[in-house]
From TrEMBL:
<keyword id="KW-0808">Transferase</keyword>
<dbReference type="InterPro" id="IPR002213">
    <property type="entry name" value="UDP_glucos_trans"/>
</dbReference>
<comment type="similarity">
    <text>Belongs to the UDP-glycosyltransferase family.</text>
</comment>
<dbReference type="GO" id="GO:0080044">
    <property type="term" value="F:quercetin 7-O-glucosyltransferase activity"/>
</dbReference>
<keyword id="KW-0328">Glycosyltransferase</keyword>
<dbReference type="GO" id="GO:0080043">
    <property type="term" value="F:quercetin 3-O-glucosyltransferase activity"/>
</dbReference>
<dbReference type="Pfam" id="PF00201">
    <property type="entry name" value="UDPGT"/>
</dbReference>
<dbReference type="InterPro" id="IPR035595">
    <property type="entry name" value="UDP_glycos_trans_CS"/>
</dbReference>
<protein>
    <recommendedName>
        <fullName>Glycosyltransferase</fullName>
        <ecNumber>2.4.1.-</ecNumber>
    </recommendedName>
</protein>
Length: 476
């Protein structure tokens, strides 16, 4: 850290530090990386307020015990606090949420910024993310510089950017043999494209929100990405040569929970309370014996698919820890829990990062969401890739074909024997040792990136120094 930054880190608690406000789209896959970035920034000496919708605030209070308002809690050399939009949305439909955010979000966010000014902690910088593109505009109207955190991979950013600017044409959806190429990326098929960019995509509102962020991304002064330079060196190097060029991507990941800080661990973003006994159950099993399966916070399987997954996991003959969210638990086959008692544990949510680094875990059956992808890369655990939609399709391509960390689960249709065969291949197949070796190498690289002086740590440090310098200049 430079001398000026060191001098400026005097006490975020006393109000001497610049105030950064993070505004997050209300989804678990966004809250986790945004909160983790907020914590890393706070630890380097800023006062950071984390915000999202009032519904997210209520869930974080209930499941993670965060305290809303006030001065927040110390974190490293700074502080982090929570204050949420007073938006009042309580629906469940995605399209309704997107419409609500588009209309109610900007004025409520402007009110939130005004409350900070009135409380004597004016905001020096705003960090938003792709599904709420209006945050950058609201910040600009208030004269506040902004940053964007891209919560997917650099590869996925490149795909969106090229498509939005008409620089690539994807093959027809029924032509799985056709390949296309983009600078810095391997040859890809239409099955590797984020499904939000395909004609069959049913989530048009999400696609439009993402593309709008890409169209206006140059309004942000900084564009962070939840990745690390060593993981996606080719695409990061190639993007500046695209015409028109995007703003430089600044890798600050993997945005995982860092080890060794009690304060850091105490401020978490899980919106479903994790089961308390997962780690203790894992302690009872030998090294590399347990299959861990989780499809994240959004993916929904049909009753038939849940049954096939259940019987497939049971047929592996290995102990398994399976995350089945409360909204899907009733789909479990009748009598299944009793039948697997003692060798199978089914929980509504897990402390995933603690699970993945546990020595008893042999492989991770995952939907390949980007957060889960980075968590398994950081843990060094081979994968059984089971992508469903969105960027999961691209992430699975990279995990299996480029990083050489796992195998694909053949689907659709999902069949129990395919689950068993994929697990066997990842744990004990002819390529299992090579996959484990690759996973361990990528784990070491990812942890080096976020360690003190690593590539991502330096990027966060430089950002904090710039925010501090701009705040000092504004006072002079």
């Amino acid at each position: 850290m430079g001398e000026e930054a060191a001098a400026a880190t005097v006490t975020a608690a006393s109000g001497g530090a610049p105030h950064l406000l993070v505004i997050c789209f209300p989804g678990q896959g966004h809250v986790n990386p945004m909160l983790r970035l907020a914590k890393r920034i706070a630890a380097k000496g800023l006062l950071v307020t984390f915000s999202s919708t009032s519904a997210i605030g209520a869930k974080l209070v209930e499941s993670s015990g965060v305290s809303v308002g006030g001065d927040g809690v110390p974190l490293g050399r700074g502080r982090i606090r929570f204050e949420f939009l007073e938006d009042g949305f309580d629906g469940n439909e995605l399209d309704d949420l997107m419409r609500h955010l588009e209309t109610a979000g900007p004025p409520k966010f402007a009110e939130l910024l005004g409350r900070q000014e009135a409380a004597g902690r004016p905001v020096s910088c705003v960090v938003g993310n792709p599904f709420i593109p209006w945050a950058v505009d609201v910040a600009a109207d208030a004269g506040i510089p902004s940053a964007v955190l891209w919560v997917q991979s650099c590869a996925v950013f490149s795909l969106y950017y090229h498509r939005m600017h008409g620089l690539v044409e994807f093959p027809p959806e029924d032509d799985l043999d056709a390949r296309f190429t983009l600078p810095g990326l391997p040859a890809m098929s239409v099955a590797d494209v984020p499904s939000f960019l395909l004609p069959s995509n049913p989530f048009k509102s999400l696609t439009e929100a993402i593309l709008q962020q890409i169209r206006t991304i140059d309004k942000a002064r900084w564009v962070f990405v939840n990745s690390f330079t060593e993981l996606e060196r080719g695409v990061v190097a190639a993007l500046p040569g695209v015409t028109p060029p995007p703003p430089p991507l600044i890798p600050v990941g993997p945005l995982i929970e860092l080890e060794g800080s009690e304060d850091d661990a105490a401020v978490r973003g899980d919106m479903i309370k994790a089961a308390d006994d997962c780690v203790g159950w894992l302690d009872e099993h030998p090294p590399r014996s347990v299959v861990y399966a989780s499809l994240g916070s959004v993916v929904v399987l049909s009753a038939g698919e849940v049954a096939e997954m259940a019987h497939g996991l049971a047929s592996t003959g290995r102990p398994f820890l399976w995350v089945v969210r409360p909204d899907s638990r009733e789909l479990l086959p009748e009598g299944f829990l009793d039948a697997v008692a003692g060798r199978g544990m089914v929980v509504p949510w897990s402390p995933q990062e603690q699970v993945l680094v546990h020595p008893s875990v042999a492989c991770f059956l995952t939907h390949c969401g980007w957060n889960s992808t980075l968590e398994t890369v950081a843990a060094g655990v081979p994968v059984v890739a089971f992508p469903q939609w969105g960027d999961q399709c691209t992430d699975a391509k990279f995990l299996v074909d480029e990083l050489k960390m796992g195998v694909r689960l053949r689907a659709p249709p999902l069949r129990r024997d395919a689950v068993r065969d994929a697990v066997d291949a990842a744990v004990a197949g002819p390529d299992a040792d090579a996959m484990m070796s690759s996973a361990k190498a990528w784990s070491a690289a990812s942890r080096a990136a976020v360690a003190a002086g690593g590539s991502s740590d330096r990027h966060v440090e430089a950002f904090v120094e710039e925010v501090m310098a701009r705040a000092r200049a504004a006072k002079e």
